Fold these 4 entries.
Entry 1:
Amino acid sequence: MNGLVFLIPVALGLGGLGLAAFLWSLASGQYDDLDGAANRILHDDD
Amino acid sequence: MSCCTTGFSQEAAVTTSDGLKAGLLAELELGARHLEDGTVNYLVAVPAMHCGNCILIIEQGLNGMAGVVKARANLSLRQVSITLQSAEVPLAPIASKLDELGYKPQAMGDAARQTKDETLRGLLRAVAVAGFAAANVMLLSIPVWTGADGATETLFHYISALIAVPAVAFAGRPFFISALGALKRRRVNMDVPISLGVLLATGMSLYESFIGGGQAYFDAAVSLLFFLLIGRVLDHMMRSRARQAASRLAQLASKGGMVVSENGEIHYLPLDGIRPGMVLRVAAGERFPVDGTIIDGASDVDRALVTGESVPVAIGPDMGVEAGTLNLTGPVDLRATRAAQDSFLAEITQMMAAAENGRSAYMQVSDRMAKAYAPMVHLLAFSTLAGWLIYTHGDFHRALTAAVSVLIITCPCALGLAVPVAHVVSAGRLFANGILMKDGSALERLAAITRAAFDKTGTLTTGEPSVSSTTIPPGEESSLARALAMRSVHPAAKALAAALRGHAIAQVSDLHEVPGFGVEATAQGRKLRLGRASWVAELAGENSPAPRQTNVAFALQGGPMRFATLSESLREGAAELVQSLRAARIESLIMSGDGAPQVEAVARACGIAEAHAGLKPGNKLALLQAAAARGEKVLMVGDGLNDAPALAAAYVSIAPSSASDVGRMAADFVFTRDDLSTVAFAHQVAVKTGRIVKENFALAIIYNVFAVPLAMSGHLNPLIAAVAMSSSSIIVVANSLRLQLLQSEAPSFHEAQTPLIMAHAA
């Protein structure tokens, strides 16, 4: 029971971190041009 | 990555007069966004962008220019976002630079200007939240199922509630809004039982948690939302992809015209600024923006998209032209007789609006199911409530628990996925084969057709003639004829140039085109002409009569007359399509605006028994409406403006990507390949999808047959609900994926991109 007291908040916190990261990446437009991103990796100077 | 360098040269012959460029700049200026720091942002459509290298070429080319703060290419949307230092920086050199690089800039269509798809973002946010909640609540549920003690169980229920309630409130909105909308219109869609199930599951679980009962269905509620939202996102992405592709095609159309004012200046006006009486200049290779009368110049017009006539018509002063017809050989001035909104085009649009009312009555199979299913579920829940009240002599809590658990277990998780997943998979299959689909209901309608009606010009035929026989002898004369034919954009000349491909190109001088007649040049001191027989005969030494059906003549000064006969070339796969439809017991017919001899020739070549010639748009519409009244479900395949009302009125319709704007808008499907056999493939996919959807419904209902008695008898618990829901959803998705196995005989997408010229040479 004692373990649960901090393990559950830790689990939820890590999950929440992932969720926040996804929402941020969505808002910053990282999914706007998926085809372009796949091709840009081939350019050295970008 | 050589794909970047082609594409431009072909277009150069047709367009790029200075007039067009001014028009383009004016349209781009309209879409400018002025930012707070004084910079200006323009969005430019660049349809020619194909690969990673294109991004590099465009960005390096533009970023080095004076006044450019930043240029960033978006390959998915085929557009470039250009930020300039201030509004004073001229746009013209940037547009020219793009043109030079081989990427013809184009103005954005209104629909495409909304670059950020807010609906998709909202849905993705909802998926993320629902996914987070589903994973964590499920994690907390497992200890409860495996027998946690009282205090832990209550604590876990509280934590679950804390996660699930906000998640349901946020992620459930798309369903709640849609359900409310349907109820307001006194209709029932699939979202009504979904919303009811989710809300009741959450509500009952909250109540149970606070009184300390063991029946919490938070996991069922949030995982249901998670699965359904994934289906919804897939569905949305499929449709916006098809819409983008369609609007990219629409950008090719002219949205205004060059107006010559009284003092001789030429400026660009958008379409709705053009008034009757204004004088417009239309260059060769452009479409007429409005109906008008020619006042100066001579040319040939290609009316195929408007009237369905396959042979170009010569025009001169005082003759009328319709909006949307293509000016082929020479620049002309015309006086607008009607404003754009009163043109021939507008009449067609009105006819379409009237015709489309019929189609909106079609109800999707999922909505039909919902209509039958929802009342049944509600009746079952109500009778459970009543039954338990009588059986327990008024124990309201137990009766209500049983009734709500019936609603939860019947909540159509698998039913909600049955249709969208199948549609998404088949839309993916169609897209890979060059067919764009507007929405899922079109697929259902395509599966049910009983007849197929085809337009001729541009649909069954390629719309471009080819030379079927010629009397031009090989050697010097063929070389000379080829040199002349290559100069013109007239379809007859293009066909002849393709037919004479094997011959050398002779040196000629003083080459010029005489609009309405043909091409003239000088070689070794002798004049030569290619074009209309009567005009060529003036030059020829003998005046031999032209054989019947001759479309183009050629002669050297004082030499004999030579002739070439043109015929329409059938699209690849036309005859095969008619046969494969016949094998599926669907008879075909032709509805064309062209003359009877041409129509009958094509009908014979395709093996079609029923052919109607000389039809006006209204006649086509009437034929389809008569067929509909007989109870026939007609597929209409057509491309022209004259087909648009028929495309809108037909039970389901398909247009090639070469179709007129209005035609493409009216059609349910657009196919981007030259090969007509893709239409047969679309029909196969539609039939197969219909079968898969029915199987999915059957699977979902079988699960209900087992689960509902458990719920009614009060033996349902959260573990059974979770297992049953997840497993039925997975089975439905797996069944839908079987559509991927369907083979197409058509070549892969990239092979189909080979230039048209190759096909003609063969």
Entry 2:
Amino acid sequence: MVKSSLVRQALLLATLAFVPGLVQAIYFGDKFSWRSPVPASEMVTVTQARAWGENATWVDARPDNEFARDHVPGALPLNEDRWSELLPQFLAAWSPEKKVVIYCSSEGCNASREVAQRLRKEAQLPNVFVLEGGWEEWLKTSR
Amino acid sequence: MKTHIFSFTLSIVLCVTARAGLKWDQTSIELHPTATDKQAIGHFKYQNTGDKPVKFRSVRTSCGCTAAQTQKEEVPAGEKGEVTATFNIGERTGTQVKTVTVETDDPANVTTVLTLKAVIPQQLEITPTFVFWGQGEEPKPKTIVVRAAKDFPVKHLKVTSSSPDFQTKVEETGKGQFKIDIQPQETNRQTASTLTIQPEDSQKIFYATARITNAPAIQ
Amino acid sequence: MVSEMNQPALNSQLSTIPQFVWRVVDVIVGRIFIYAGAIKVLDPVQFATDIDNYKILPWTIGVGLAFYLPWLEIFCGLALILRRLYLGGLSILTALVAVFLAATIAAKIRGLDITCGCFGHASQNWNFPAHLALDLAILGALLALSFRVVSGNRLQNAV
């Protein structure tokens, strides 16, 4: 008797808790992504970014030696190792109608997200995006 | 009652299987570097408590800013060692979490994630670090707010503009709080200025940028 | 459902403890879980990030847990206090704490150090023994409450 009511009650509670959790997940919808720790509205695919053409300003968030080896044509380096040195030259090239596309080595690296965060928060720039898949993805689609 | 038996059995099973390999003193280290430190180093100590030697297969860090080294490739049974994680702070601020993923040939514990958390003190918070006007836009003054951290008292702020095209005015708005009003002479041509912000009695210099851009500002 | 009217004095030590003490335990434990859940409900994305920082669970599962678990804790805590769906709430909370404790002890034995406890960001600076002590105390209280329910039922069935 007790056992069946216990199971019934537990299932009821487990189901009830689902509802506000789901509502909250929807409410927070644009502040996070199910796929990765960056909100969907702040990410862009290589295809989308390429389609922006001249309207995109590319930013390479990788360490200096990786940038020197190879980078997206026209991309500017901006990393946290030399932030105050590299930021002014990036800001000089930036203009309000451009979309900023930041990349680091792959989907798993954090540098592009951190640079994006700083540009949004400190420099208060609009239209700042993180490239999905990073440099790896760019290489795949450019060959 | 049932949960009693459940937990008890589970812990016995776990005790039996957890007989092997590397045992870590800590897998999570929090560091508090000073404002002038260039690196934060975490020492993850381990000991091989098993009866067989353990070999490191790989040591990967979560970013290029962190380097990790094991002292030895193979750890004999009973021996101690450490994985040293060196995080290059660069110009990062705030709380930084970097991980080191260690893979060994120990079947009970193939992958271990070591977490290095560095709380980097931020002397000044400058918001925003960039102000701009579009060409032709009315040259109204814009404001940059500067807040000093609680443990870095700032009595006076010195602000200089690298270009005479912009004028700056500093005003103290509260304890450790300042506002910098910056105004361009005109907005007819594209020009830029680097603002040098230096707290009195401090060697450290902070920067902000002001610019006249080539298109009407959409702010 | 257990009737609160039936409390005949038997060998069981538990039945000599007055009714209101059990209610106090219900309320204290219930409030602990509501507090723990509420802290995490306020910033689920932060909770998901905390889980992700240990790189043990895939991000998607971490996010799912981050949105679901806090509400489960709140509802079960309420169940304890309001005495509605009491058995269900009690069993879920007991299972949650037991599994969490077992996982924490296992991790410690294997040399891992999981400090992201049930109180989310607020408990970041606690050490392992403090965490363990609190969790054991909570488990103890939950087991005592469970035992009381079970023995109460046996009395009912015996009568």
Entry 3:
Amino acid sequence: MASDFTGRRDFLRRAAAGFGYTAFASLASMEALSANGAKNPLLPREPHFEAKAKRVIFLFMQGAPTQHETFDYNPELLKHAGQHSETKLAIGTQGGKILAPVFKFLPSGESGLPISEVFPHLRQHADEMCLLNGMHTDSPAHPQASIFTHTGSITFVRPSMGAWVVYGLGTENQDLPGFVTMNPPPVGGALMYGSAFLPASYQGTRLSIGDGQDPLENIHNARMGMDEQRRHLDYVQDLNRGQLARPGAGDQVEGVIQSYELAFRMQSAIPGVMDISSEPEGVRARYGLDDKETSEFGTQCLLARRMAERGVRFIELGHRGWDHHNNLRKRLTQTAYATDKPIAALITDLKQRGMLDETLIVWGGEFGRSTYEQNDKSDGRRHNNRGYTMWMAGGGVKGGMRYGRSDANGVAVDDRMHLHDLHATMLHLLGLHHTRLTYRYAGRDFRLTDVHGRVVKELLA
Amino acid sequence: MTPSSATVAALLAGLLLSVTGTPAAADNGLDFFESKIRPVLVANCYACHSAEAKTRMGGLSLDTRDGIQEGGQRGHAVVPEDVESSLILSVLRYDGDLKMPPGGRLPDEVVSDFERWIRMGAPDPRETEVKESKSTIDLERGRGYWAFQTPRRPDLPRVADIQWPRGTIDQLVLASLEQRGLRPAQDASKADLLRRVTFDLTGLPPTAEELQAFVDDRSEHAYAKVVDRLLESDRFGERWGRHWLDVVRYADTVGRTRNLPFPVAWKYRDYVIESFNKDKPFDRFIREQMAGDLLPYDSASERVENQIATGFLAIGAHDLNEPDAKQFDMDVADEMINVSTRSFLALSVGCARCHDHKFDPIPTTDYYALAGIFRSSDLRSGLRRRPRFNAGYFRTHKLIQLDGVPEFTSANAGEVRAERERLWKALQAAEKAGDRAECRKLARALGKLPLPENLAMGVVEAPKPAATRVNVGGDPHALGVPVDRGFVQVLYPEQAELPQIGNRESGRLQLADWLTRRDNPLTARVMANRVWRHMLGTGIVATVDNFGAMGRQPVNQGLLDYLAVQFTDQEWSVKSLVREVALSRTYRLASSPVEANLEIDPDNDYFWRANVRRLEAESVRDSVLLVSGELRTGAPPPSPVHGFDRNQLINTGNRQVSSWEIDETYRSVYVPVIRNQASRLFEAFDFPEPSETHGDRDVTTSPTQALFLMNSAFVSANADVAAERLLAAVNGDAQRVRQAFRQALSREPSLQEVDAALGAIRDAARELASSSADRSGRVAARAWVDALASAALERTFNEDEIASAMDYIERHQPEAGSSVESAARAFLDSDGVFRRGRVLGMLQSALGWDLTRPEKAAALKKVREWWARAIKTRATGEWTTLASAGSPEQEAWSLLYHALYNSAEFRYRF
């Protein structure tokens, strides 16, 4: 795909075809942005083909969550518990004694999908979930694998998937950034929401939730109230309009004028999105905002829903603490508890609003854990990139299904799905061919899946 | 694969079914292979993908069953029965990025034969082993490519308009324009030209005085005098050095997964700036960076300079968490190959690590010839890979020692050395003992020891130089043949005697010699093109870092070759080349379009007018500081990174880094470059990702830029200072408006603009006066609160917190007397405030409400220090004066500067 952007006329045609209230709500501002023909790289663009999913909410569980106590019911573990597994799953691991799951799996939903008892709320959405039990990835080290999960590359600095998606589709709400990432874990750093060689407009806007900081720097003017600032900005824009007539510079000046108007709107829109005090008490409770353990991730999930409603294209939430080398029972109880209710509430809300179909939810960490125990001193599992689990829901994915399987050694064996395949499938669900979503840099066309990736059609609803 | 599905597939394919279920045994399957598949493979694929071929391209052999199923770099070419996973199909269909065979798509029926064959289970009788094989790249043919031929001075072309050109550059440009029916735009106005050349040569706008002087100078050489003045200025090296730092991926931290400081990288940075300032011949500059440690020298200072120069090879982004030592070593060499070939040759030789270059005639063996040179050189970055417990990355021994520089100028050298050795031994013991806590403690202590002054980053010769073996498919554990050290073969002039690399040297010296030979077809062209790009906005070869087949072709090769030859003829003087371009008429064209040209060349590919250019991030910040009068010249001694804990990972939100560009007023080139964590200001204005070569920068227009310029304290504080200085220096409101426009926009305002500005100032002043009773106090209190949060909590307050703090101060002001300071003090001392609401929990834990009295005093001191620093940008010194300083009049003038900083024009040069 070339970097030429769908023009205003295409947008109007699309808007007329109707893709929701939010589009019309910000129609005026978009028109203003494109009226001068200046390239606004964030304008919505047609996908390569019709697709259900319009946006992504990626729930990134950093630390490599255990699949054996969460979403991968593997009876082999019970059968072989206590036996020695010789399989090297990561550098430095030598195999070990197979550890039976420390939590029970329960059949859930009408589909009877086996989901661990540690997710009592999430289990209720089993019929929406598609468990990917045959995932595998390239690195068993947290930083590399975290970056790989986001960019598809360990070796090079490459655009993150959020950047690729906004590059491919633009975004629906011109008053907000197209790619937002909340509390990105420090391991992996900014590469996880960077745009690398893609234009900077596609990079993720980072929001810090729950630490008391301004979610976005410089979003408030400390000196001027809005009215005062508007008058000041009017003077600036008068100055700018005086420059529009300067031969050969009109496009650039117009671009600046529009960026100021968007920034001004963002000053109002961002606090509006972030202000969850208007949410009814029941909703707040459903997300667990009334509970110290769940309130931080609950806030993220609630904000994700509010951003989804407002047309943000790619929303990522970060949660840390899944690296359970020991005390698995106790620590998993905590991390699962912190996220179970909030994620369930998010799915409930999206369903209620009829938005789940058009919102692709993806849950997962950077790799998984071994079937054998860390040591015999405490319950815990080692790293494993050769078999792990992620899941998807909504956005045109089949619910109530499992895809893939790993064996007693923790190695994905049937219906294996490499991370590149996940990327290819995510793009497909958004209506993008992963082989056609390319960007020319340093003399060749790059893509999220590099030269890999298979769209796993079996998962498509 | 299951027999039944193979059978079904065969049935579906309309073939006779195989009762055995073993596809290879099915007669018809083999017949099918022999009649439909093998001939196609032989005719179209074996040339590049067989044992007979010179190289297995892409690591792929198609001449054996194992080979075709195992596949190459990209995966399995053929997966029996699995049409989706068999890469060969998408390649043959031409629907992916890789299209084969390269000569053109094979007929549909052939492609469907392959599909059918795969569905059958890909029966294949060819059972030979996969053999290692040779390259198919035809170097002779490759040398025919324009960029691989030595540039020659072009004949001067005829032009119709003989009056127009001022020199050879213009003649070459005009000829190319006339050929296409284009005509040059008019000449730029004096004001535009001065702003343009001042930014392009120094990265700063002209001062109001410089503008006046230039406009007043009616002499013939007025412009040439300006160019020479700018070339002589030390600001030139800061600007052009920064361009080079983009190319060499300069940074002050290692980046990647374990982001540790490079505490002495800045020595290389300053070396680069100085080299441009003294117009070091560029061939010399290359030789120093590639092999400075091996060059002869005449003086001690020259020796030190040469040593520091090799930092070029050492400042790469290395993955210190790479578990595989061999992989790490090859990655380090790879990084050096990439930066060397992209910087000097604009070739991406790195592509040949895993396979012959797909587009350029660079075989894998060339890559490993270079790898041998860099593997025979030892990296001295100061950091070691994967220390136990992530403790103790930094090691002084892993830096180079500068000859003749004392370890410490202060007297304690011996003590520090002894302490370092003691800690280091203890660390090694603790590592052995597996004592995690002890390791971390010792690493922290080591990381804080005073840093010897005689250290720099760089490379040295390895003890045992040797050839490197090909890593088959880029896998450092799959070793192929050893490759003699050497250079990029396609660039060898055919008759040339190649420099010989001895057994006891790395070959960097020979590589440096070869790079800087006059007949090297790329080196001079690439740099001349970079110079053109920085002056005109786009390169003659638009892809400045890629002159290969996938790069863009030169729009005017004669011009490029002229500049390249001129460059080498003038002793590789960058300043001479810049001067010649700056004095050309082409450079001095207006940016306004010629209507008739827009049809033919809308993007100005052929340089018929000047390009309007947005200022780089550095210039935006530096301009704000220059206009306010706050910009400090020279380099901070030394970089703040010098003072970091050297064993501490750089995490997001690291305060000592993140606010430096706001707190300090040195030029932006001296702001530490932290990989994975660009400053928000720089990031917003497209500062390049500093892990790879970027000869070109993005230009975006984003709301984040607007938010920074509109709302940051940095911009408004500088506007305040600018206003204060203006009111003191200039009398008369209209004069003041004119002066502000000259400073910020390098031009005179129109009469309407003066009127509009005066109107806006009057309105603002009136409004401010009506609310000014407590306004300045409010501003001061607000600043105090900010300072408190920043210093005590190492973060900023959010709006809620500020509101409650301000609220508190307002309510307590009467009790504490009228002074805002005492109210703010009361705020700090008040238990009540800290215990209220959600702000308070945070403050409580951050400030540690159990502080003892002395600790509290220390916290207060810290706040005051921070405050003193923050206030410096307002040029007042004491926060109390702030309360009285901001008169309505001054604030109104501050708003004018603020508006000018925010105007579109401010961020462009026309």
Entry 4:
Amino acid sequence: MSRPRRRWMLALRGVSKSYGSGDIAVHALRDVDLGVERGDFVAIMGASGSGKSTLMNLIGCLDTPTSGRYLLDGIDVGQLDDFQLAYVRNRKIGFVFQSYNLIPRTSALRNVELPLIYARVPKHERRQRALDAIKAVGLTDRMEHLPSELSGGQQQRAAIGRAIITEPAIVLADEPTGNLDTVSSQEVLQIFSRLNVAGRTIVMITHEAEIAEYAKRIVHLVDGRIASDRRTTALNAMPPKFEPGDVSRSASA
Amino acid sequence: MSIAESVRIAFQGVLSNRLRSLLTMLGITIGVAAVIILVAVGNGSAVAVQQRIESLGTNVVSIQPGGFGFGRGSGGFQSSFTQLTTKDVKALQDPTGAPDIKSVTPVASGSVTATFGAASYSPSQFIGTTPSYAEARKSPVEAGTFITPQEESQHARVVVLGTTVVSNLFGSADPLGQTIKLNGIGFTVIGVQAPKGTNGIQDQDDIAIAPLTTTQDLITGVTTGLSQIIVEAKSSHQVNAAEAEATSILTPNHSSNGSANFRVLNQASLLQTTASTNHVFTVLLAAVAAISLLVGGIGVMNIMLVTVTERTREIGIRKAIGARRADILGQFLTEAVLLSVLGGLLGVAAGLIGSRFKIVGVQPVVQTYSVVLALSVGIAVGLFFGIYPANRAASLRPIEALRYE
């Protein structure tokens, strides 16, 4: 069995990040090497202070490393200016935050559509893609509602719709179930599993082991270093807890 | 991001806090309305002055006994007091000495009480004059006739009344042909002067006009001098020449200690001075109004800074999903401009409505330039004061903005 050459969607090479300088410098990440392949579903685990937020910010191109290289879909992010970083965030990364972070007073559909507005996608195409994305997260019947009129789970599903609408290289989720009850958490994780089945690369940051079990690979971060990196499910296999079914069935729950 | 999208998002921002947006707009509204109204008031009073100049007749110079001021050697002293007489009138009428003078109209003033039946009224002005008065003073009759040369030479007991006098004596009845008594002497009403309104000091319709001859016979007496001589120049360009000629003709007979005992009032130039004062006044008013516009702009800036702080997290989200610096800058700048455009349009509406009413006795006359200027300055102010807050928003670092609670 010959292995095909690995295709890194995301590759961190000797990445360090420190805040401050001299004696008071805080080393949030120390010499991290991490590669994520296309189609993988990776959970990054760690206690608070382990550097996982810093890692998330670096992967999400919200911050740049102090040293080391970061390649995202073949692009050396360290070389980019503000304008190009905005472009990369727009096209290559789909963010899902713990606190949903939808734009207030803006309908779910408009929120989902927003990245395409910044990508200068023409209105007609934009609307069609937004409708598709909102359908993929099973929120069609609630799409005209404002975030304040949606439950936490529904808001997070809208946020996922927004994350996938640009067909990004990776979906980056930071504690996506942190604010959700068990049922909503299940739904959200099933959506991630489904997206992964559809071929999307997912990096999920969490501190809960049972959430991490949904991923195919679990990376532990301790004190800014990778302590363990364990693959639980083959890259080409289905995500471990994936339940085939129609997501829109659970949408009205 | 397209302009339509920017405007849409900006509208959402403006509508998300209606009261605050409205109060912010009010600053610009008041500024714009103030500029429009105050310029209109200044302009309105200039227009009123212009009308007064025209109603006086632009080509006339008025000569009155007495000097300027109250000092020694001028009209303030009884000894130097002079009387203007019909002899002076004749001298001024001589075309060889005064080629630029078209007509000379003597005016004698007195005070009378007019009665008609039971009605009694004292006009504020009673004058005796000659037929040329009507043209020199631009006082045509509305009904009947003015004093004719025959009536003047025949010492006819006839009178032309102003509309104020007519309404006081006759109410709505027709005064023509009626006989009224002036200080007990019967005069026939031959004409009613066309209404002239106020000249700013007195009601020009509160007047009774009789022939000079009759007036000197019966009311003022021949020995009392004329109250003024109205000199009409042949054209508006010759007014100054006519004034100089009149002065040189009168000076030999009416001076003491080398200074003239009469004064020459070129009323048109006097009012032109008033008009230019008015212009300065208008500019000052506009400057004060412009300051309020500036204050309104600072209000916009203040609110935009608050908005940016409030929406820090939103800015972070937008940046995280790919908004560029220019997108954020555009969004907040559009919002600031939108506030000032809406405020400015409200201001134009308020200014135009406000200018329909009389303000301190002046009917404002709206100037198109002031509307355009006020609105565009208002918008420019919004743009200018929006730059700093918008730039601040655009410069926020996404991680810090996302972490903001």
